[in-house]
Design brief:
One of its GO terms (molecular function) is ATP binding. This protein is an alpha+beta fold. It has two domains: 74 residues, Phosphorylase Kinase, domain 1; 95 residues, Transferase(Phosphotransferase) domain 1 (Transferase(Phosphotransferase), domain 1). It contains four helices and eleven strands; from the N terminus they run E-E-E-H-E-E-H-H-E-E-E-E-E-H-E. Strand 1 and strand 2 form a beta hairpin.
């Protein structure tokens, strides 16, 4: 991965998953910190979707580099407050106000996507990040658009997408989703 030539340094690995590697990086010219996601070009649908969206509750795309025939590197603004999943696991309970604010932010992000006919297909607590967990009411960002699709009229989805534990049960009973 040849990002150093493009003005970025990579102090640490954040996450390595089935389809991507995510590293924290620093832009040398500005000193700003970002998250760099390295994907195969065949998964470029994520880039196309991120280029179409801009919302306070959705991770923001900063830049995209295609470094050779097989790879596409996505630079996104760093969301460093950790996963909502971990935040919830550490707290004994949420106040009504905290729960309401989290739900409101999640629904605002999802509503924005749906208004643009985009389905995330992998919305779960691990794909919801906090900007800063050390504030009374943390702001959230939806992340990981690797399974997201732009929905077009008449298109049928015959596969089940997402993490099995978070897929709606009706998806298993219905063989396809018709839009």
């Amino acid at each position: 991965i040849q990002y150093i030539d493009r003005g970025f340094s990579f102090p640490s690995l954040c996450f390595s998953g089935q389809f991507a590697i995510v590293k924290q990086c620093r832009e040398k010219s500005s000193g700003l910190e970002f998250a760099a996601k390295f994907i195969k070009k065949r998964q470029k649908r994520e880039v196309n979707i991120l280029q179409q969206i801009q919302h306070p509750n959705i991770v923001t795309l900063h830049d995209v580099f295609e470094n050779h025939q097989l790879h596409c590197d996505i630079i996104m603004f760093l969301v460093s407050g950790g996963e909502l999943f971990d935040f919830l696991a550490q707290k004994e309970s949420l106040s009504e106000e905290e729960a309401t604010q989290f739900i409101k932010q999640i629904l605002e992000g999802v509503n924005y996507l749906h208004a643009r006919k985009i389905a995330h297909f992998d919305l779960k607590p691990e794909n919801i990040m906090l900007l800063d967990k050390n504030v009374p009411l943390p702001r959230i960002k939806l992340i990981d658009f690797g399974l997201a699709h732009k929905i077009e009229a008449g298109v049928e989805f015959k596969n089940i997408f997402g993490t099995p534990e978070f897929v709606g049960k009706m998806s298993y009973f219905k063989s396809y989703l018709k839009c």
